[in-house]
Please model this.
Amino acid sequence: MKELLASVWKGLITDENETSYFVQKNGMTFSLEKSETESLNIGDFVEGFAYRNQKDNLRFTTKIPKIRKDHYGFATVVSTRKDLGAFVDIGLEDKEILLSVDELPAMSELWPKKGDHVLVKIKVDEKDRVWATLAEDKQFLAMSRPAKREIMNNKDVKGVVYRVKLVGTYVLTEDFYLAFIHPSERELEPRLGQQINGRVIGVRPDGLLNISLKPRAYEVIGDDAQMILTFLNQSATGEIPFTDKSTPDEIKATFAISKAQFKRALGSLMKKGMITQEEGITRLVNKG
Model:
């Protein structure tokens, strides 16, 4: 049985009823829904993928999933159970595959959540149980490419977390670069399978990216400063007739904040080099 489950093979159609064909190999019989395939006859051979469905019935499908014993692929997490692990969808309509708790991080808050993606293949144990198993580092290395400093430095990147360790977080970007997030470059530790948005802060000689999940300095601004930037960007000239010398009533009437709040916001923007002030005017350095 073990060699048949989670594998692709050709079997002989030995019987049928109104809804199913029955496919046999090595003395084992699997049901194949007639709606999946063109008309077949008893005695024909058919190729497909064999598995046990959620009801523990032996099933055979011609809709061969990409994720198999010898094929890795990204599977979507559909649910988790703390006593079992994470259930993933590999493309079977009536079966979810379990990624064991033994392969997941020790801290359950770092487990993947519904909708996350993990790179897995399938394995079958000695009791004919089918499991998902995480890809090893060598698989990610094989599917990645080295990054070039002159191209990637300071670029925004998206990726999926494929390994969480004490030393930091490992990511595969959507452009197939390998990346590392040091604990000092994140506010919260990303979970396994989570999609992250970061920026490149360095490129190692071997082409691995160092990325940060923290915003750039100029992106760290308060609500009041953001409101002032909105006014400046909406101005045709990138200017507003207000400065830190404007009266409290003028500021309150236009921005609905106090003069102290206005001055703090202006100070923050000036410190970041985003605005200048002169002769009663606040001007945006780079409009947009």
